[in-house]
Amino acid sequence: MSTYKDAGVDIDAGDRAVELMKASIAKASRPEVMGSIGGFAGLFDASKLKDMKQPLLATSTDGVGTKTEIARALGKYDTIGEDLVAMVVDDLVVCGAEPLFMTDYIAVGKVVPEHIAEIVAGIARGCAKANTALIGGETAEHPGLLKDDEFDIAGAATGVVDADKQLGPHLVKAGDLIIAMPASGFHANGYSLVRHILATQKLDLHKTYEGFDKTLGEILLTPTEIYTLDCLALIRAQQGNIHTFSHITGGGLADNTARVIPDGLIAKYDRTTWALPAEMKFMAEVAGVPQKDMER
Fold first, then answer.
1. Are 207 and 215 in contact (CB under 8 A)?
2. Which residues, in sequence order, are CB contacts of 51 under 8 Å at separation 6+?
3. What number of CA atoms fall less than 13 Å from residue 146's CA on the CB side?
4. How is residue 144 annotated by DSSP?
5. What does DSSP assign to residue 224?
């Protein structure tokens, strides 16, 4: 006789994970959420959108790349969910959209309910920081495809912006200023290069290097900053003076800013106006990473 469990899938463990995550999900809600976790689809009351002249729905999906490998190596799963939320909702706000709700997808080699609950707790915490409801998700066990302790996460969110308040390149003009918002670290970008440096320079994730008050692993797992509510507040406060945003992710400053600069204009940066975060400077110096690669 062959059973599901013989095949490496533990449905009971999945059910326990759902029970453990319910408390966290309850903290990441909005008044428009209808029903509770456990149905086949999450429901969101969109009746308030009728107050907009021309509501445009915005959607974004993303993951956190190989930053998951740092979390796995350290056995620390409670922060990576915040990275996921940041990667998704901070893409939405670029066009001026307010994120409304989000769903997540977690793939694991083996369901360990406590690990799943920690990941979801991070996602819920990130959603709360962005005033975004976490209205559904999926946990998939992939025995044979992923090792027992390997995992990957992805998410998608939906937001809304009134058409006449949409931000973008169409508003950008000569003379506009670029204002930077400080990073919390590497965010969830560049970790393939980070991991290459860890391996080639034989750096220890558990070591506290000179000049830092945390271990290298703790530094590299610092959650990605979630800028959404600050950006929305700026839009409201500036009354039309904010023309667009750029979410600096893979590709770096130049490539991402270029996505919101109209044809015929170029952006000029003065590198003397900012300093690299200490951890970025450390990784660049220890491995001799060229400036171009660091900025990407």
1. yes
2. none
3. 19
4. T
5. P
pTM above 0.85, yes or no: yes
For residues 260 and 245, the answer to whether their CB atoms sit within 8 Å is yes
For residue 23, the model assigns a pLDDT of 78
Contact residues for 83 (Cβ-Cβ < 8 A; gap 6+): 64, 67, 122, 126, 187, 188, 223, 224
For residue 130 the two structure tokens come to 């962005």
CB atoms closer than 10 angstroms to residue 93: 27
Closest to 232 in 3D by CA, of 93, 28, 100, 101: 93
Q: Strand 133-141 relative to strand 98-108: parallel, antiparallel, unpaired?
A: parallel
Kindly state the helix (H) or strand (E) to which residue 55 belongs, with its residue range.
strand 55-63
Residue 252 gets the label, from left (phi > 0), alpha (psi -120 to 50) or beta, of left
Mean pLDDT for back-to-back runs of 10 residues, the chain (296 residues): 74 79 80 79 89 96 96 96 98 97 95 93 96 93 92 97 96 95 92 96 97 96 97 94 95 92 94 91 95 88
Beta bridge partners, 98, equal 160
